[in-house]
Amino acid sequence: MSPFDDYIYRGPHLSHICLYNYHRLFYKQPNHNGINFSEHHPQAHTHCQVIRQSSFPIPNLLRRLLFLRPDFKDKQVCEDYYCLISALFILWSNEHPLKLTSDS
């Protein structure tokens, strides 16, 4: 499972947390001593979400995709970049995607 899948199916108890903070504050572990995922998560019956107790890492979810030169000319690449950055800080889920399939 990717970190994005975990975020998509994080469930209603964590629906108020953006992707960046979710991966900074929570991790997944194989038991049920934490917050349950929504029933659509493939590991919902074997894993749960637990808040980190000691350190809060700075997630690098997008690796090299986060960097774009200020003078970059390709408008589509710039648009994709802005969408990726938005996905980090704007709330979204499987039930409430950032962009509907009918949107441009």
Number of domains: 1
Q: Using DSSP, what is the number of strands?
A: 3
Report strand %: 5-15%
Widest sheet: strand ordering: 1-3-2
* Low-pLDDT regions: none
Order of helices and strands: HHEEEH
Describe the fold and architecture:
- The chain is globular.
- The mean pLDDT is 83.
- The chain has one domain.
- The protein is 27% helix and 10% strand.
- Strands 1-3-2 form a 3-stranded antiparallel sheet.
- It is built from 3 helices and 3 strands, in the order H-H-E-E-E-H.
- By secondary structure, it is of the alpha+beta class.
Keyphrases for this structure?
single chain, 104 residues, 10% strand
Annotate the secondary structure layout:
Layout: H1 3-8, H2 19-25, E1 26-29, E2 35-36, E3 48-51, H3 75-89
Antiparallel strand pairs: 1-3, 2-3
